[in-house]
Amino acid sequence: SPVIARVLQIAYESLVYQGLYFCVLFALMGDRRHLRDMFWLFLVAAIMTSTIVLLLPAFGPFKALGTAPPGSFLVDAELLKNGVKSFALMKLAGVVDFPSFHTTMALAYVWGFRKAGPVFWPLAVLNLLMMAAVPWYGGHYLMDMVAGGAVMLASLAVVKLAPRLKFSPAQPQAAYS
């Protein structure tokens, strides 16, 4: 259905907009601790995902099925698989790989927005739709999504357990202004 396809595409493309909305919303709510936790969660997850991609580059179903859309990530992924570690940044199409960063962030947003009051439920639904869109718009296998979930849980554990990353009320407020 074209309507379902469009809804899934919008959900998939909402990743960056949700991050911006999160920052604005929790800044307005004055919840610095939650902003800080989400910042570290995003950073740790991005580092983990990027490291795994470098160590285990893969092509995904677009390559296996020959269904890659024009201008897709496959050229960049093939270069990465062949050992090329530098790219022309302005020409980079992105690398869809194992694990799925969209899955990681969809779960992170559900965790992050849990304290957002009434906007939590619509955003939770949006993120479930984002995860449903990952195989079609992201070109991921189910295993990529499972690994993305594992990255989110591992990142959350790092953020919650690493004492230097946690907000400490003993620190002066001026450090967060």
Structure description:
The chain is mainly α. The protein contains eight helices and no strands. The chain has helices spanning 2-12, 15-28, 32-55, 61-65, 74-81, 101-112, 120-137, 142-161. Helix 3 (32-55) crosses helix 8 and helix 6 (101-112) runs antiparallel to helix 7. The longest helix is centred in the first third of the chain and has 24 residues, at 32-55.
What keywords describe this structure?
177 residues; mainly alpha; 63% helix; globular
Q: What is the radius of gyration computed over CA atoms, rounded to a whole number of angstroms?
A: 18 Å
Low-confidence stretches: none
Compute the separation of the termini in Å. 48 Å
Biggest sheet character: none
Helix content: 55-70%
Mean pLDDT over the full residue set: 82
Indicate the structural class. Answer: mainly alpha
Taken in chain order, the helices and strands follow as HHHHHHHH
